[in-house]
Write a structure and sequence with these properties.
7 helices; D-amino Acid Aminotransferase, Chain A, domain 1; D-amino Acid Aminotransferase, Chain A, domain 2; 8-stranded mixed β-sheet; alpha+beta
Length: 274
């Protein structure tokens, strides 16, 4: 961590403290967002903060700040550091739970860290995902509870879990998932998964470029006929997937649609900087 905004001021990592009475520590109650910079400008800042407030509402957390105030704090933090950053924005459960109004005294804090991008080899060679018969408890909320993503993860730093409850593919442990069938992409609907900011950008780019997009849960039994797969996220952008469990996807190499969408994303990235 390079910098933190907590208790109304910017402090160094050693001064970034929360009381042990906060329910984010006591009970794991809190929501967050991860935002990265590109050329020192935040990427998709407003959609991330809108999703943060939606998650807070779903979790009965009453935010002490609005989006405009949050934006100002984040931009001020970026201005203090001369490098590309990963910014994590949190709303904790605070110290008080009211049975009528919920978590009425949450803490808002922001961490500013080095932006650690995936290795170039991941984009050149693709990665693998490990399917698990499980899913996130509340897909509509980006909760701090990532226990499943860590404890179910295979013992391989290059692999990520893929949630496949009852054979339906929803999302990966930290990313949105797309399965390709030629010129058609399939990705789980928002009734089943988190509203990924990069997910929506990719859907828009795909449709603008003439691809078909089906918002449905692709199935594990469809993997043998799939031509490509990829995951999307704020830091990963568009990362090719070449293997899911024992199943090789397509010819086992990053496919043309994945590469094309990645190039389009980089070409138009300025559209989503704030």
């Amino acid at each position: 961590m390079k910098l933190c905004y907590v208790n109304g001021r910017f402090v160094g990592p050693s001064e970034a403290l929360l009381p042990v009475t906060d329910l984010i520590i006591q009970r794991g109650i809190g929501v967050f967002e991860s935002i990265c910079t590109h050329r020192k400008r935040p990427l998709m800042l407003t959609p991330h903060l809108e999703r943060l407030l939606t998650g807070a509402k779903n979790s009965y957390i009453r935010s002490p700040l609005g989006i405009a105030e949050m934006r100002e704090i984040i931009r001020e933090g970026i201005a203090q550091l001369d490098e590309e950053l990963l910014i994590k924005v949190y709303l904790s459960g605070g110290d008080v739970f009211d049975r009528v109004d919920g978590f009425v005294e949450p803490r808002f804090f922001v961490t500013f860290e080095d932006l650690d991008l995936p290795p170039a080899a991941f984009y050149e060679n693709g990665i693998r995902l490990e399917p698990v018969d499980d899913g996130r408890e509340d897909p509509a909320t980006k909760s701090i509870d990532y226990r499943r993503a860590y404890t179910l993860s295979p013992h391989d730093e290059h692999a990520e879990i893929l949630y496949c409850p009852h054979g339906e593919i929803t999302e990966s442990g930290h990313s949105s998932f797309f399965l390709c069938f030629g010129d058609t992409l399939a990705t789980a609907p928002l009734t089943r998964v988190l509203k990924g900011t990069t997910r929506q950008v990719v859907i828009d780019l795909a449709r603008r470029s003439g691809l078909n997009v089906e918002e449905r849960c692709p199935l594990l039994v469809e993997l043998p006929r799939a031509t490509e797969a990829f995951i999307t996220g704020s830091v990963k952008k568009i990362l090719p997937v070449v293997r899911i469990g024992a199943q090789i996807v397509g010819d086992g190499r990053p496919g043309p649609q994945t590469k094309r969408l990645y190039e389009l994303y980089l070409k138009h990235i300025e559209e989503w900087l704030e």
